[in-house]
Every structure is written in C-alpha cells, then in structure tokens.
Prior knowledge:
The chain is α+β, with helices and mostly antiparallel strands. The chain has 2 helices and 9 strands; from the N terminus they run H-E-E-E-E-E-E-E-H-E-E.
Amino acid sequence: xxxVKNLRILAGAPLAAAALIALTAGSASAAIPINKPMTxxxxxxxxxxxxxxxxxxxxxxxxxxxxxxxxxxSANPNNDPLCKGISVKVxxxxxxxxxxxxDKCPSCDSTHLDLSQPAFARFAPLGQGVINGLxxxxxxxxxxxxxxxxxxxxxxxxxxxxxGASH
Length: 167
C-alpha cells in the first residue's frame, strides 16, 4: 500500500510541473513592439458578445480591432498585455485611425488585422473586403485616443486605483 501511494505522488509531480510550465510559458514571450510600423492587410468583422479581453464588444458599430493570435502571450487572454491599454494605429492612403485591441483573430497571420466594420469603413467600402498594403503599429493610447509614450502614466485611470474604496 505504502509503495503505491508514494508512486502516485511521484507520478503526479511531473504532471504538476508540466502544468506549471504550460501556464507560465507565454508570460516570458517577446514584448509587444510598441511604435514599430508594420505593413500588412486588413479585413473586417461584425461579431458581438465578449471579445478576447473579456469585455462586451459589437464589431458592427464600435471602433475596435482584433489582432493576430500570434501577438497574444497569456494563457488567459483577459489578462494579456494587449488588453491593458494597447491600441493599433492604422494608416492607409493618407488616413489614420487608432482603435483599441479588444479581440483576437485566430485566422490572422502576424501582420493581418481584423478591424471592426466602422474602422474598416474609414479606409474602404465594406464591399472591398480586404485592404492590402496598409501600415499599422501597436501604440499605448490614452482615454481620448491620443497616442502617448508607453512609459507615461494614463491620467484618469481607475484601474487598480480603488475607486469608491475610500470613505
């Protein structure tokens, strides 16, 4: 009996270690390349419900973007750095728009963006379906949509500020 019990403990140890490695593997991945221009393409989508960041979205009427699964690094996408105030500044034919990352695109490669319908419509008619040759970059955006340096504090943020906790 005692031998069997000890074997079960020993057999479980590698599984626990493997689970720990799997849960932490993504957290050490490369940082989001803030302000590094990339060239790629965009499509659009119109899903409604919960986006990968765990918030309600409606891509048919909100300005937002789903970025490639290759940029996500956390096992739980709600906790991913992309969901912590990161936006994408998209430029095409002299027009630019900055939209918050709110969702993940499972079928997109690393330079393919899936814009919400209104964001896509800023650049081309929806009937076009795909915009090729646009440039885009990850940016840290303030609440008014302006681009701010990654190291700058975001004014007016209530995240972690304990709003309503003081009496």
